[in-house]
Known about the structure:
The protein is α+β, with helices and mostly antiparallel strands. It is built from seven helices and twelve strands.
Amino acid sequence: MLKSEKKSLIRFLLIYLGSTLLLFSLASWLFYNTQKHDILEKQLNSLKFESQHISQTLRILHQTFSPTLPYPRHPLMESAIFDKDKKYIFGSENAPKILDNKSFAKDTARLYFVADVEPYYLGACFLLISKNIDKKPIEELQYIILLFMLGAGVFFTLLGLFLGHLFISPMRDSIKRMNHFIQDTTHELNTPISTILTNIEMLETFGKCEENQELQRIEIASKTLSRIYDDLTYLNLNHNYHRRLEWINVSAFIEERMVYFATMAENKGLEIEITLEKNIYLEIDKNDITRLIDNLISNAIKYNKAKGLLKLTLTEDYLSVTDTGVGIAKKDLKCISQRFKRANKSEGGFGIGLDIVSQVVKFYGFVLDIQSTLNQGTEVYVKWSK
């Protein structure tokens, strides 16, 4: 899956799963609060029932004044009676502040119920009953909702992946058709490009036409086509061909490639400054190092200003290619190495050069660093030293 496809799929999943999670979280929260209220209401009813029982017992005590009748107690509940001034009379619960609240009150651990005693049996005006909240049914409710959310999360994630692939399917088909077109075009370009370059070399060798400007223009155009062909071929085969690693003298290789690009650089009137440490070797596939260096040099030529400066520096730690061209805006620097991305539309190209460079750098564990200022130039570093 390409980066663009992954990005589109991730964005779709974030929006889809985020909105779904928000909706289900809200529904679950409402359901939880409703069910919790019902659970507490059932437990409160037991307090109301007990208050009726105590009130009846108080009435009997008030009427009989029998010393043998004890104050009613419950093994799971606490209760107490208060006078009309809310002063404690008797009982096992002494929390007069609760009387100032509504008839029903609760904290994190206990339920309270306040009942009026009418008439004032034994001088009692208020009856306070409390008990610990039974948290077991609430915990079971939380567990059920958690399982439901996990199950719904898995289900909607799988559904989101399915819908996401359907969502990016048209884009994937378009990219496949474009890749097939590029492959067919690349195949058709191979023979005429090779023929043109071969005949130009023969004319230069046997016809002594080195100074012919028309022939130089044909050579530049042919080499540009040849480089585009090589890049497109590399993109098509990059994940399939077998890399043959060998120790390559990068110093000598850059000098060789600069001879290849000399005509293009001279045609633009560029000043070339090359600083190469001798005998810098890298263990790398020759096709990879060719695509890496060719794209960096060709971009520095293409996007340079007329009579600008092209500077190459090679050390044991890095390779840098600097130009004094159009530069890259800061907003484009982060995505400039993406395939088909072109920050500057005034020059030709497919936007694949830096994507190829990025792929090579990533495969070998190098570091790519691009520093640029708009209308001043660009400096590209490829660092291989750890």
